[in-house]
Write a structure and sequence with these properties.
There is one protein chain. With 152 residues, the protein is mainly α. It has a single domain, classed as Winged helix-like DNA-binding domain superfamily/Winged helix DNA-binding domain (Arc Repressor Mutant, subunit A). The chain contains eight helices and three strands; from the N terminus they run αααβααββααα. It has a three-stranded antiparallel β-sheet. A hairpin with a 7-residue loop joins strand 2 and strand 3. The radius of gyration is 19 Å and the shape is elongated. It starts with a helix and ends with a helix.
Length: 152
């Protein structure tokens, strides 16, 4: 469904305004799909993101502030997220050997097994991009990278 049909609006202030609304619309569409898939797995997309980050560093533990820097949603309450993942046995908290004030986390074997069982998620969510050719996906990535370059 095109943006105009989705929001029942035919005119926009400018093409930039329409592009902005298109980005928001696409974000909501993709986020909604991701949340549906995550809910079936008993996770939130934020929890999945934390586990995905920690799988990338496994078997090494990672400092909480490094995890925070890698999150897609930097507004997330990482302490609350990690506490829930700890309760489910999907990660463990470790003291930093050089600074006891720092906290490190590491994904557990159970967390790794969970993620392995969820590898289909990326394919399911990626299916939303199926209408685009490989070249269009590359162009989309290039444009989004350019858009986000100076907005950290």
């Amino acid at each position: 469904m095109k943006l105009e049909e989705a929001i029942r609006q035919k005119r926009f202030k400018s093409s930039r305004h329409k592009a902005f609304l298109n980005i928001v619309w696409a974000h909501n569409l993709i986020s909604g799909k991701l949340e549906q898939v995550m809910k079936r797995a008993g996770l939130t997309s934020r929890q999945y993101n934390v586990l995905r980050i920690l799988r990338g560093s496994y078997p090494e533990a990672m400092a909480m502030n490094e995890v925070k820097n890698r999150l897609l949603d930097r507004q997330s309450d990482l302490t609350r997220l990690t506490n829930r993942l700890l309760q489910k046995g999907w990660l463990e908290r470790l003291e930093c050997p050089s600074d006891r004030r720092k906290v490190h986390v590491r994904i557990t074997e159970a967390g790794l097994k969970l993620l392995a069982s969820l590898d289909y998620i990326e394919e399911e969510v990626s299916a939303l991009l199926a209408p685009l050719s490989d070249a269009e996906v590359e162009e989309l990535n290039r444009l989004l990278d350019k858009l986000c370059e100076n907005h950290e």
